[in-house]
Structures are given as C-alpha cells and as structure tokens.
Design goal:
seven-stranded mixed beta sheet; 10% helix; mainly beta; SH3 type barrels; PRC-barrel domain-containing protein; PRC_barrel-like_sf
Length: 98
C-alpha cells in the first residue's frame, strides 16, 4: 500500500469515534493490530492497540502514544494507522489494563 498518497488525519478527527476498530500497519505494510480505544490524559493521548489473536479473541491490548502513529485516510476514505513498531515489539509491551 502506498501511504504517500493518503491524507493525514486532522487533529479534530483523532477521536475514538473515528479511530475505533481501525487497522494499524507496520512500515512493511503488515497488519499489526487494531485500535481498540483511546485514553486521553492531561499530558497526552494514548492509543490502545489490540495485538494478535483472531477476530478479537486472544488479543493483547497495549498502549502507545498517539504521536507514535501516522493516522490517515486512504483513497477510499478508510482510516488506518502506520507505526514504526512491529507486531513482536508491540506484543512485548506491558498489557494495558483499563
């Protein structure tokens, strides 16, 4: 997938309603997870990515900073994220507990 043609999301679009269930890819275009939800704090927003599993079963939620994802829309308007993290690196992060 050529992300260079995709439109970055505006800050006003970075809401849970827009981002929930969006796929996240690594720089090699491997799907590494799905955005589960957001945690907005005083200093920063965290994105909880569900990693691994199948159809939501056996996934591990991990939190990363919103600034660690490139969030964009493809040519069809579908939102997705691109990360420098690999699936293995995300799996190695501590599990996020609500």
């Amino acid at each position: 997938m050529d992300h260079s043609r995709h439109t970055p999301l505006a800050a006003s679009e970075m809401t849970e309603a827009v981002l929930r269930d969006c796929p996240v890819y690594d720089r090699e275009d491997n799907r590494i997870g799905t955005i589960g939800h957001l945690h907005q704090g005083a200093a920063s927003t965290k994105v909880v990515i569900d990693v691994g599993g199948f159809l939501g079963i056996g996934t591990k939620p991990v939190a990363v900073g919103l600034d660690q994802l490139d969030l964009m829309r493809d040519e069809n308007g579908k939102v997705h994220g691109v990360s420098n993290w690999t699936k293995d690196e995300l799996r190695d992060l501590p599990e996020h507990k609500d």
